[in-house]
Amino acid sequence: MKTRTKWCLLALGFGLGLSQYHSHTHHGGSIVHLFEWRWSDIADECERYLAPSGFHGVQISPPSEHIVVSKPHRPWWERYQPVSYNLCSRSGTEHELRDMIRRCNDVGVKIYADVVINHMCMADAGEGSRSTCGSYFNASREEFPSVPYSAADFNDDKCTSGSGNIENYQDIYQVRNCRLLGLLDLAQDKEHVRGKIVDYLNTLVDMGVAGFRVDACKHMWPADLKVLYGRLHNLNPKWFPKGSSPLIYQEVIDLGDEPIKAGEYYPLGRVTEFKYGAMLGSVFRKWNGYKLSDLRSWGEGWGLMPSDKALVFVDNHDNQRGHGAGGASILTFWEPRLYKMAVAFMLAHPYGMTRVMSSYRWDRHIVKGKDENDWVGPPSYPDGTTKPVPIGPDGGCGDGWVCEHRWPQIRNMVTFRVIVNGQPLCNWWDNGSNQIAFGRGDRGFIVINNDECFLDATLNTGLTAGTYCDVISGQKTGDRCTGKQVTVDSRGRAHFRISNMDQDPFIAIHRDSKL
Ligand code: AAO
């Protein structure tokens, strides 16, 4: 059994980079994407659950007015087809949005708005007022009077493809100046368009959002984004240190096979690292000869972007249903045992700023590898209204809401991440196969058995002597452990036995789970 070096890897420097890379008060917790949740439910969740569990913030679905699609019936993706920047959407009214932002900020949970500024709705959406605030639009004439936008505000004159749509991702001009998936492509180099986008973003900043997940950044020129971000207000001093700027993380899908690179967007803010989930899924599935012990060099050592620029996730709302990128290796709630192991690894490892997915179930109908129901929207009433999120007696969610963020193993690992924040990766151990362990300074330690055999090892934890509650099989409640417990001796060593038949074949202990 190979015992790896006991030395801490060099502390991963948290660069003094521009504040867009990490919000000033980033306490190490994780962002949770409450996908398609209503604003009033998010507000309740901030107060009753996210704040006490140590979540850093919530990514909310796009709050701007969007089209109402009837065929297919109310797909989740109608929210990625804006009709105006009015703040009424499937998740609620402007008043409900303001109230949610206030209530979450008041308990220290930050709000990151998913903003769709690359485009408006699809070119063939016709005309009318089938939109979430009832605003009139005429897509074929490229008229959105509620903004207002007119044909002059779109990129039709720049696009060089035959169809007007992106036909070739190897052509950077098409990718930026043509229509993504047939969506009317805004001209962010036009002052009028810049003004409307900046007004929209600053309205949200003034309301109290802490930053943005900027949709489809690959399809916008970095120079234009730089102008837009440069005009953003500082965060609302009611909740944030004076002079704080919004945290920005940009959606750029870069798996290495296209000319447009994530690196072009580093100077502007953080960037989504799609290689993360695609590769981590392959490792936990043991595909391509990958073994967990290969994760010793996880992070930049695997060619991932610099840690202080990365927004990382195991799955996201697109690739959990075959949209966007990531492919078959992506782990999701549909495979809970492996999913929990991968999410726990992500939350224990110091690399990147993490985002946990919180999903809803839908009736998958996979034909030739594609889910014909990949469009299905959130749990709703027959009229299309999104259902509330009921919380059951066991702390889980009902009515089709999955609430991965409420799975005890994931919740407790979010808390773990807060406790070990800033501590370097230490005391790596592996068995040369699929059993690994590592610590974070003297604050936390995790052991994972993804082999087909028993893990039985005495390891350096880096923790002080004492008895610790395992936060995966249970937790510390009062002066006892509800699950397994681990005894660390005076030299910081502990004996771990983990059966590969365990429901969750991994153990995590930390400073605050000590009896
Ligand atoms: C809907 C319908 C469409 C219809 C459209 C307009 O589904 O059929 O044409 O309306 O009528 C979401 C849904 C879309 C939906 C859209 C609007 O996913 O299905 O379209 O709302 O309602 C690209 C973008 C990326 C984008 C992704 C979906 O670069 O930014 O497509 N994600 C965001 C949001 C997403 C949203 C939008 C953008 C639009 O997260 O939810 O769409 O606001 C390659 C490229 C990627 C490209 C993908 C997919 O990926 O690299 O940049 O993503 O293709 O087009 C390997 C490669 C990888 C490649 C991948 C897939 O992994 O390594 O590079 O294969 O080919």
Relative helix content: 10-25%
- Ligand identities: acarbose derived hexasaccharide
Count the E strands.
Answer: 24
Oligomeric state = single chain
| Residue windows where pLDDT falls under 50 for at least 5 positions | 1-6, 10-19
β-strand percent reads 15-25%
Mean pLDDT: 95
Structural class estimated from helices and strands:
alpha/beta
Q: What is the CA-atom radius of gyration, in angstroms? A: 23 Å
Give the strand line-up of the largest sheet. 1-2-3-8-9-10-11-12
Task: Tell me the number of helical segments per DSSP (H or I, 4 or more residues long).
Answer: 8
Give a quick account of the main beta sheet: strands, pairing sense, barrel closure: 8 strands, parallel, barrel
The separation of the N and C termini measures 31 Å
* Form type: globular
EC number: 3.2.1.1
Protein name: Alpha-amylase
Keywords: Calcium, Carbohydrate metabolism, Chloride, Disulfide bond, Glycosidase, Hydrolase, Metal-binding, Signal
Enzyme class: hydrolase
